[in-house]
Design goal:
Length: about 90
């Protein structure tokens, strides 16, 4: 169980790394597009949407899904280690 949780944490970090790479590439393309065609610059609209979301969904907009998944998998690791210790110690027999 602990190894499964550890795998989950590593997988979360890998997915976040891939997300970050694609996000940065997208931002670069967005900036280049705004340079070439200023009439298509959507940054102001995106900022308005982001601010509205932070106001309406103040708690969930501040917690990254990545963090929630890592915490979940860390709980699995701790549970696995705790159960292993209890089983090896013979607790409950």
């Amino acid at each position: 169980m602990a190894l499964l949780g550890l795998f989950g944490i590593i997988a979360c970090y890998k997915y976040f790394e891939r997300f970050d790479t694609h996000y940065r590439r997208t931002k670069m393309i967005e900036l280049k597009l705004a340079e070439i065609h200023p009439e298509v610059d959507t940054r102001l609209e995106w900022e308005k949407i982001r601010l509205r979301q932070r106001k309406e969904l103040w708690l969930s907009s501040r917690v990254q899904i990545f963090t929630l998944w890592v915490v979940l998998h860390a709980v699995v690791v701790v549970s696995g280690v705790t159960l292993t210790i209890l089983i090896l110690a013979g607790v409950g027999h």
